[in-house]
């Protein structure tokens, strides 16, 4: 069929497919749509394909206007092939997701040999700073069209044309405006031979006499700003927290629903008083109390008023978080939104900064030669260099999930990120994102950092910390030990030694160059260096052999022990290990002393600190000296430290760690010594209903404290279970049993589940088992935190499998997340070296050490479930253990319903009814809201649901216009035009229809 459509590119085919799932081996192609542009003549191809298996109901929701009868009456794939091949000829195919289309064609229609061009890959190369590269996101961002992706073959192909046109127009316009910038086509042609073969290359050359005026829908700015109209308002900032009572400020623009809460005002008041009085305070603010809003409000107003008075110290506040998710949420959403409401957006400077290794280094990217050794390396290099050009981007965390995965950046990041020791930001002359942020720090009024950076603040010369808000402060219970620990890792140390001859450039080369620059004052002998290096390697090998001879029992996990409190059968071996460590220490010192002597003799009495080679060598030998000190401390017995020895399960390396036990003194000396005011905030600070535990641990016994009462009715919104029939976590069939239960739960709830594991091994085993169970279904398994956003998609059935980093920092209100499962109570092993050191040296009982950590972790994981008044769901502990006292204490600390111990089948039988009641109650709330707002319910229900993070939508009218059907995934409810008149219809299987 011929149609009217304008494509910049000629002699190509835009093609997209629809399938029954994402796995080509277990899913089928059900629709193919294509638009051929040949010699400027446009023709289309569109066909349904009859499926052999069942079509998941979610596919009909995803693919707009797709009907079952169309598929059932369609031709089989064998009858479509010849017609498709005739249409495709040998023209290249441009697909919105090329990898996906290619994988399905290679499995189902192997006769298609056409070259496939991936729109997502092209978009990532041209605009590498983007977070999303799916068709819907690109339609939204690079066109002015207000279109929703239909997930239909032909329409998606037409939309792909619009997006490709837009990207090319944006590219050529930018290259024309920035005349000094070399066109990407020339960059590629001049580059690596592999890069020249990139299948998009020839399409990036701007045609002669090209006029982009014909493409009026192209959006040319980098980012679209939300078009929210805010009325101008007079705000008295001296009212501080009392501004929360003025709903007209927060309702201004109508972009979010605001409700005044006295508890939120009280949080703000306490924080303001703490800052003004230069005090310290612990505030437990449960989920839903609005603590983030509360402290951002006070920080914004306080810094602004002090900025007006030119009071530099008081106009600067540091906010420290534990998770990157909260850090990003603050910078991208919370702070800008609140500043805009307060009319302070352009009047206050704010930003985030992380440790240096979180950023790409322009110099290291330029020097890295290994890109050329990989078939995809040149394209990765092009992506990275286009990303960091001009120093506008460079935060590794902000690289889009798809691009990071597609370009396999994990292989390269450690070679091209900033190095803490060798990165001198004050003397860097490159265009660098980190350098730019570093130089902006003195101008920041609000700076967001993470706890690890706070513990070792490296930017003190640019910015002092005067006032500090520590959010997610419960993490300091455990993290404080990590902050002040020091370690020696044999594998990492061998890598350090390898730099002597094989560094880029090598230490030996740098040493010779330094010697030449200072007039050859020293005779540098590589043989002397190698002898000392070999001696160290010999001592490390001796230690590894010693560990092999120890007959370590557990081959599944690394062996760990508290060095001076090891089990009886290892005590004699530990004496031998101590002797080997002493020899290793001596050999390291010998190498350090030789290199230090060389450097001292070369520079003599001159001041070499401006010399780059000198700085690199100095950093290198200080690393050697630091590792010498770690070993020296480790082999000296002391009640002040936990001395932790870890041996890899396959003897690939060993690690020793010195962990100080009295961290409170270090928190005060190393972190808070010069800080005027500190607010410790979290939803989970109290243990056994008291702040005493965390205050004592952090050395803050005299700090103030304040507790906000529970906001949500957890007893009505949740149920908590432990399961009695899946076995103990260390039993033989445990993985198989829990995987089966998780799978059955996912089928009932259509995914929207988070499964948390206390260790990575159990997660991997469960993932493997679930991969078998979910094969051929539409249930998706994900383990990367960046995939959490998929839970918000009602058309996808997602099970997220997470470990330690997933226990907190996840905010998915409404229908996105309705079930949280944890594999077992997070008890600490009695043989845990740190636990053993604390119980031995500080004379504490095991439960005194174990329960605080267990309580915090369970409270945090439970807190992932309820984020708003309309949240609901199950919190399930698969193995609740046998200690009923612990479970009863948890009941009190969770402030939720009683913990029920049931069989898995019994729990599954409750599920349909419980979830339908919760969903129906939420629908009632939405309907009430719309009636109060006097809005038309059928046309407004979806927007109201979206505002409340719910999936409800109007489905159809009933027999009368006052009778409506509403749908939420697999639940359909019939409603009469009266809030009280709510009925439900069920199919035989209990599912709504």
Write the layout of secondary structure elements.
Elements: E1 12-19, E2 29-38, E3 41-48, H1 57-62, H2 68-72, H3 77-88, E4 93-95, H4 98-108, E5 116-118, H5 119-126, H6 135-142, H7 153-177, H8 184-190, H9 193-196, H10 247-250, H11 262-277, E6 280-284, H12 291-308, E7 317-321, H13 324-341, E8 350-352, H14 362-367, H15 377-388, H16 401-406, H17 413-416, H18 433-440, E9 446-450, H19 451-455, E10 467-470, H20 476-483, E11 486-489, H21 490-502, H22 507-517, H23 526-548, E12 559-562, H24 571-603, H25 612-634, E13 641-647, E14 654-660, H26 663-671, E15 677-682, H27 692-697, E16 704-707, H28 714-717, E17 718-723, H29 734-749, E18 753-756, H30 760-773, E19 779-782, E20 797-802, E21 819-822, H31 833-841, H32 846-863, E22 873-877, H33 884-894, E23 899-902, H34 904-932, H35 937-947, E24 953-957, E25 963-968, E26 971-976, E27 982-984
Parallel strand pairs: 1-4, 4-5, 6-15, 6-16, 7-9, 7-10, 8-9, 10-15, 17-22, 17-23, 18-20, 18-21, 19-20, 21-22
Antiparallel strand pairs: 1-2, 2-3, 11-14, 12-13, 13-14, 24-25, 25-26, 26-27
Helix pairs in contact: 6-7, 11-12, 12-13, 21-23, 22-25, 23-24, 24-25, 29-30, 29-34, 32-33, 34-35
What structural keywords apply?
Rossmann fold, 6 domains, Nucleotidyltransferase, domain 5, seven-stranded parallel beta sheet, 993 residues, nucleotide-binding, single chain, disordered C terminus, 27 strands, alpha/beta, EC 5.6.2.3, exonuclease activity, 35 helices
